[in-house]
Amino acid sequence: MAAALKKVLTFGSMLLPHGVHELKRRLRNRHKLSADVARSLAENRQLAGLHTGRRCFILGNGPSVKDLHLSRLQGETVITVSNGYLHSDFDKFQPRYHCVPQITYGLMTSEDVIRWFEEMHSHLGAAELFLSSTEAALVQKYNLFSGRTVRYLVLGERFDGRPSEEIVDISRPVPGVESVPVMALMIAMYLGFKEIILLGVDHDHFLSSSYQYAFDLKVQKGKDSTANADGTLTTNRHDDFQSLARLWRQYRAIANIARANGIRIVNSTPGGALDEFDRRPFQAWFEE
After folding, report:
1. The model's pTM
2. Number of domains comprising the chain
3. Any idea of the CA torsion for 19, 250, 58, 206, to the nearest 10 degrees?
4. Would you say residue 24 lies in a domain?
């Protein structure tokens, strides 16, 4: 009865103004998997528990990491995201994995994505790449990331209403994400990491009214529909808060899954607004 009521309420929420965004997103992501994507998903099963018991660092792109000595990550397992290859000292810590979520097209055209992926490929070293399945056809058509291991996630489900606290299975369709660190967290848990440390996951643009990075963008500069080239926001508070509510629910869901599976997620971002995980200073990880 409770489950049925929840479904009714969820559907009803789609009729409200703030639900239109979510409804459109669901419809966009209802696509038949190509044979290549289906095969790639099946291959993700090889990754289950690959790093069991170890720790990793998920490095976001927030400006809070500008004053961190990222060279200390050398020898650690690092997961970077999106434009993270532009971080200072990137060549010193060389990530094992790199994640890019579903791409919003508009200001960002297919030609821009091709240029971005080419720039990314030239900087990533030996990192394995995780992309959204929505970019699979583009990668295949233009033979992008030649020689690199590229894996895909089908980002089309929802965290809301998930009946289980089991680790998200990335060999099957997974929840879509409001921000790429959520994607990286799902991957890290599936890989078996028992200690996951977040860096540069600021999420405080709603306080500063400005979206900034720890570096200067190159190909993607001026291509964000939610911010001007100087970082000032183009969105209104209503839309911003709806997006933030979805994002915080996703982090809450991740935190619940982690607790249920004995996984420790720690936020070592200097400052920032994310408050769903315990805090620990970055330097403390290297003083043990």
Report:
1. 0.86
2. 1
3. 60
4. no
